[in-house]
Each structure stands twice: as structure tokens, then as C-alpha cells.
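User: I've been going back and forth on whether these two constructs are worth ordering. Before I decide, could you fold them both?

Assistant: Sure. I'll take them in the order you sent them. The first construct and its C-alpha cells:
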Amino acid sequence: MFLRLGRLMRAVGRDIVVLWYACRNPATPLHLKLLALLAALYVFSPLDLIPDWLALLGIADDITLLALGVPLLLKLVPHGALQQARGQAESVLSRMRFGRG
């Protein structure tokens, strides 16, 4: 279970970086940028549907939002902006991996 969770978090982490660059692209619609902002505010907000202090249940809503919401938002990004964002994200992530070694 924890191995799957780790893989999910790595994949979502990569997608979050792609979404960040996609939201910085002028070709990405404003409503999509606002949805991404609202999702980020919810994840980092101390107010949740399920309080974070409830052991594993507390972060379940945040993980669910990230696991389902980020890929959905990426599907709504225009193709050109998404390709550009993926290139930028890969460049940044590869520098981070190289710097670790």
C-alpha cells in the first residue's frame, strides 16, 4: 500500500510541476488557472472537509484532490501550452535529479 502511495505522490508531484508551468502560460484559460488556484488553496488551507488531525483520514481528502484533480486539470490545458509546460517541468526536474547525485 505504501509503495503505491509513494508512486502516486511522485507522479502527482511531477504533474503539479507541469500544472504550475501550464498556469504560467498565457494560452491557458483563466478559468483553468482559477480552478488550479482553488485546489492549491484547499490543499494548503487549515480548513478541510475532514480535519487533518484525524490520523490518515485527515489527509485523505487532500490526497484524493491531488490524485484526481491535478490530472483532470491537465486534461483541460490546451495542447500547445501543455507540451510547453511538460518541457519546462522536465528541464527543472532533471536538473533537480542531477543535482542530487
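The second construct, handled the same way:
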Amino acid sequence: MLHSHLTTLNAVSLVLATFNEHGLPSEDLLAGSGIGLADLRHADTRITTFQEMQVCANAVALRRDIGLELGQRMHVSAYGMLGYALLTSATFGDALRLALRYPALLGTLFELSLEEDGECLWLTAGDYRENPALAQFNIEFCLMSLKVICDDLLGHPLPLLGARFDYAAPDYQVRYTEQFGCPVQFEAHTNAFAFERRWLNQPLPLADTITHRAMAERCRKQNTEFTGRQAWLGRVRQLLAAQLHAAPGLDGLAGQMNCSPRTLRRHLHALGCSYQELLDELRFERAKHWLGDGELPIWRIAEQLGFSETASFRHAFMRWSGVAPSQFRP
């Protein structure tokens, strides 16, 4: 089942800025994501992780090792109110516990946890349920950005005892040792890095009780709103995903959501998407799954996705991926 939720434009903006420095236009990186240049001018724009991952897939196609570089550029100040709440926490431990309390605001694709191991703690990223082809990129980006957040909070690098990754060492593995600054193990059972427990009690240089209380309260309210929107969008996606063979249309979906078509359209617009974009996203994910399995003929996949003609499906898949369905098959 497709696991997608709302997120901010932070990571997308970072990808674009990184490649723009080397002269690559933003349009190339936004291809197939449904994100327009106009969307980038609004700081409160919300996108789905599907859209974010399409931009990241475009980036990885250009540079396989881009995850580490992007993670190094994701400073705590990029997280808005949450970033300021973390910076003004009393101790390093308080800040970490606050970050783990609001994964939606952190924008992570992982379940983050602190796991005890004697006198050290492992900050672990697990339960990844997005595109398997982008798992290594997302792990690199997640753990590297978390290391940068820790360094920013303390005002100096957090000394790490070790880092673990659950995949084979890439040909650029030396960069892991350089950037994490510790022994690195590949083909491990988790994705995590470790540090001494004593750092949890370290006072933060920018601690401020009054500012922290105000920012923490705003984070709580934003998280309530954000997760409520995610739950609503999740229900819309669930209904639509069950009817891809005979999509209900905007009016039919609105009836199933017990609201008017105008209300549904307005809510989707506020979330940065439309009925057609959601339908295309779900069709694309299901098509990739079936094409990868190799069991169903292309005409049958087209039929199951609600296309009246195979040619229409081929045209749509070309628009989504840039290649024909037959070329996508293993």
C-alpha cells in the first residue's frame, strides 16, 4: 500500500538550490512531480512525499551520492518553528526528545527512536515504507541531516561512536567515514549512529525558557493541524486507491467523503494537490508495482487502472515516467 503523507518544501528547495549551483535548471528536477515554480514562492505550501520523492529520484538519477551532500546542508534553521524550539531547549536531550515527538514537523520518512546500549545511545531510523529504489538515498539524507541538527544544537560537532547501515557499502563509502567522523559498518541490521549518553545532559548555548515555551506550543498546534490534514488526505487516497479500475470522479469521491465537490476541491487545493494529481499518483505507483512483477500483460494493467485503451495508458505512463511501460519492465 502506498504510504504517503504531507511535508514541506524544505527538502525540494534544497535539492533545487544544490543543482542550480551547477547550472541545472529547476524545471528538470521538478519534472513529473506536479510542483510548479510558482509553488516554491509560498513558504507554507504543502506537498506529498510522493511529489518530494519524484524530485529526489530526478536528483539521484544525476548523482547517486547526492543524499550525503543534501543531508549536510539541512541545518536546524530549515525546520521553521520546530528548529527554533529545538535550539532554545534547555539541554541536548530535551531537544532530541522534542524532535522525536513531532516527526510530522521534522518531515522524516522514518520512525525515529533513541535506543540504549550501555553508556551509549543509538539514534535509529526505521520503518521505511516509501520507494525501495530510493531507500539508500533517504537513509543517507536522514542520518546525515540528523547529525547536522545535533551539531547545530550543540554549537560544535557531536562526537559519534559509530554508524550503521543496512545495505552494502557503496563505491563512495569513504565519504561516510569522512562525514560522520566515526567507524562505519555496512550490511548491519539497523540504520543508526551512536553517541555517549552523557551528551543528553549538555546545556544548549541558545537555550531560552520563554522563547522555547512559545515555540513548543506553536509546534504542538501546528502538529495537530498537520496530522489532521494528513489523516484526511489519507482517507481520500484510501478511497481512491480502492477504485482505480473505475475512478469515481470528483463528484463521486466528494459524496463518499460526505462533502460537496466544491469543498473537496478547496481542501485538496489547500493541500497542494488536485483530484487528477492524486489519481495519477496512485495509478503510477500501482502501474510500477504491476510492471515490476511482470505477471500482468500491459493491456490488462491498463484495464485495471481504468484506462479505456492501452494506448491511453502508454501515453500517461510516458508522461509520468519518461519511458514506455515496456521499457520499465525488468
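Notes on the second construct follow. The domain at 6-210 is CATH 3.90.1520 (H-NOX domain). The chain has two domains: 6-210, 242-328.
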